[in-house]
Amino acid sequence: DVTEIEEKEAQAKQEEQIMKEQELSNLLHEKRYLKALGLAISLDRPHTVLMVVKAILKETDGRKHLEENIVQLRKDQKEAVLTFLVTWNTNSRNCHEAQAVIETLLKHEAPDSLLQYSGIKSAVESLLPYT
Questions:
Q1: Alpha carbon distance 114, 103 (integer Å)
Q2: Which of 99, 88, 85, 23 is nearest to 57 (CA)?
Q3: Residues 58, 97: Cα–Cα separation, whole Å
Q4: Tens of pLDDT, residues 49-89
Q5: One Pfam family, short name please (predicted)?
Q6: What distance in Å separates the CA atoms of residue 105 and residue 117, rounded to the nearest whole number?
């Protein structure tokens, strides 16, 4: 009977998820945006990533801080943010944040580098009508 083992594993996963949620909340409160972005991306939480981006943009020199944080992300994290922002861009409430992130990616990534991103073709096709 493995029911008990499976229940313990599910409980452990749930506890880990709660711990990560708390850590994310603490990072946002402490304004440690780079770590908050990384954690939200690893949790696959597009809305949370958007909230972090909005928090960064509300700061003094928000665009500058956003650039500094986005540039420091790993390539796989930037790819995840690109997929998230395609959805953000379709909503008028979130399009400004999406455009700020797109601007940063276009400014700091070479075209050849951008072409290596997975899903870049579909992302560009989805972004064009709304941009």
A1: 13
A2: 99
A3: 11
A4: 999 999 999 999 999 999 999 999 999 999 999 999 999 99
A5: Utp13
A6: 11
